[in-house]
């Protein structure tokens, strides 16, 4: 077993912080933990946001990265749900200061999902953070400041198909978060799954379960009119993966009384509208191990392998970047500049 590993360190906050590759000890998996050789790590917007803004980071240097897939190489005491050699995926968590731009991770065994044979490790690495954002947003209990909409998860008894006859509107259907929100909405049975995206993504989003795809370039008022034109079924759920002020307000207005809106970013809704209090708004913070939301996180991870194997949850399209961890900085610049329905993935073991 290797004693040292390569990690991608961010030396400090912007503008002076730099990414450097350094060696660090390979962690030891304590009781309940496993050691994973990280074979694929996906890049997410939060990585460049943290690089540029340093939010939440209390200690420097730091390692970023919130998505990984790899092979189990060692078991800590008491672990029985996975074996050495299993292929698993998992997300970073603030709870364990677990981040993934490195060659090995010690991970809590309860929060890994075995990967079906039909899926590559690179594909699997595209899923964890975004599926958690979609799932916690829709199904975590109603709580503030961070929580979900309190819907019944489709992987629990009585949840599958429960929302038949209702409509959901998703801003940003081609984001990784939006793609998994579409898949979960389909499992939940929503009759109309209406999403905004660039129209070149229409067929792809329909293959995931979207019933209608609206051009994201339309003005917010035109998008609202188009939603009303495609369904007279009340929109009971709205999921905002985009954070555009005009559109978030239009989404709130679209909701039927008693409807609910989930946002991944800040609230942009006119406070005067919120005063009426007839619609519920929540903000998701995607970490399946945070104590306040660990119940849904644990139940998601218990059923995720089945949902992956059944094809209910699919990987995002991806591009593998060269040079292992050394490829991350340029990848984050490209991600910040804008991508369309693709995730960038690095192979940490290929780091020069
Ligand atoms: N709160 C949390 O815990 C949490 C967790 C994860 C992510 N997030 C946030 O969620 C957002 C999505 O993250 P992600 O990783 O899923 O993003 P992503 O996959 O990198 O997003 C790329 C997609 O954004 C779409 N897009 C950009 N502007 C749009 C607009 N005005 N309308 C509709 N679609 C638009 C593009 O769609 P087209 O290609 O169709 O143009 C593109 O495919 C980010 O802001 C991220 O920071 C929050």
**In terms of per-residue confidence, which ranges show pLDDT below 50 for 5 or more consecutive residues?**
none
CATH architecture of the largest domain: Alpha-Beta Complex
For this structure, what is the CATH homologous superfamily of the largest domain? Medium-chain alcohol dehydrogenases, catalytic domain
CATH fold call of the largest domain: Quinone Oxidoreductase, Chain A, domain 1
What is the strand content? 25-35%
> Ends: how far apart?
19 Å
Bound molecules: NADP nicotinamide-adenine-dinucleotide phosphate
- Report the CATH C-level class of the largest domain: Alpha Beta
Q: How many helices does DSSP assign?
A: 10
H/E element sequence: EEEHEEEEEHHEHEHEHEHEHEHEHE
Estimate the global geometry from the Cα principal axes.
Answer: globular
The tally of beta strands, per DSSP, is 16
Mean pLDDT equals 97
Return Rg in Å. Answer: 20 Å
**Proportion in helices:** 25-40%
Q: Sheet with the most strands?
A: 7 strands, mixed
Query: Based on helices, strands and strand pairing, what is the structural class?
Result: alpha/beta
Summed up, the domain count is: 2
InterPro entries: ADH-like_C (IPR013149), ADH-like_N (IPR013154), ER (IPR020843), GroES-like_sf (IPR011032), NAD(P)-bd_dom_sf (IPR036291), Trans-enoyl_RdTase-like (IPR047122)
Pfam families: ADH_N, ADH_zinc_N
GO molecular function: oxidoreductase activity, acting on NAD(P)H
Domain Enoyl reductase (ER): 17-346
